[in-house]
Amino acid sequence: MVRTVLGDVPPAELGIVDAHDHLFLASALLPGQELDDMEAAQAEALAFHAQGGGTLVQWTPYGLGRRAELLAEVSRVTGVNIVAATGLHQARHYGPGFDLADPGSTGLAPAALFTAELTEGLRASAGNEVLPARAGLIKVAGGFHRLDPHARTVMAAAAEAHHATGAPIGVHLEHGSAAAEVLALLYDDLAVPAERVVLGHLNRLPDLRLHREAAERGAYLCFDGPSEANHATDWRLLDALAALVDAGHADQLLIGGDTTTAGARAATGGGPGIPYLLHTLRPRLRRELGEENADRLYTVNPARAFAWA
């Protein structure tokens, strides 16, 4: 099954999947660009649904304005399945006063917090009220070409929560880097099966050899863009995907939008937004990769990647 904010659904019912995006997000690193408007989130999800979208995986983790109390309502109003994330991002996204030993003053260490959000319910944005909606993904983050002590601690906690639940782990790779280091820690040291790991932002570092090496380890590779923030490497997206398909890794590829600022929304900002994945990028991928391979990226692969073990 795949755990959505409205309950568990069979993987075959996900439909077309945006494998990495954000309806709500607030980071200390993006002042003034918060995704915090309910109507704007609904408008973006409705636009995605109108293009045939069925499921959106929101990678916003605990403590970054994910508006957990609103996600179920957005899903009901728009008809889009939403998979929510627990987990933690890099420490710098949280600003001063962040305490890794007790994030959000919940009284729970990270592993216990992640497990509770996966099995009991997400914590609300204010007051840590336990909500009926549960997380379906554990989000963690590496650094630029390295894993600092914060990243290692969070990934160890994510591995513990994975072993307790079977939930998949999504990894923010800073500028697409440190994939080998992440897999060495999660897979080799912490015994998380590589096929339970989704590596994000690989399009930001269009190193085809690095991509192939990560795929050979067995992880899922998520290419999340295009967006204004990633335009410097977006032009390599089709080349990178075609190279991985040619190397025999078509079954490990995912596609997402990674809308991180209000201005990047299509419905209420300057775009390209979430619908771009379907009305523009999907036809191009079908022409470049063939219809069967393109459909794997949008439906078949995410149905496996986000199913609980």
UniProtKB/TrEMBL annotation:
Keywords: Hydrolase, Metal-binding. Belongs to the metallo-dependent hydrolases superfamily. Phosphotriesterase family. PANTHER family: PHOSPHOTRIESTERASE-RELATED (PTHR10819), PHOSPHOTRIESTERASE-RELATED PROTEIN (PTHR10819:SF3). InterPro entries: Metal_Hydrolase, Phosphotriesterase. This is Phosphotriesterase. The modification N6-carboxylysine is found at K139. It comes from Streptacidiphilus cavernicola.
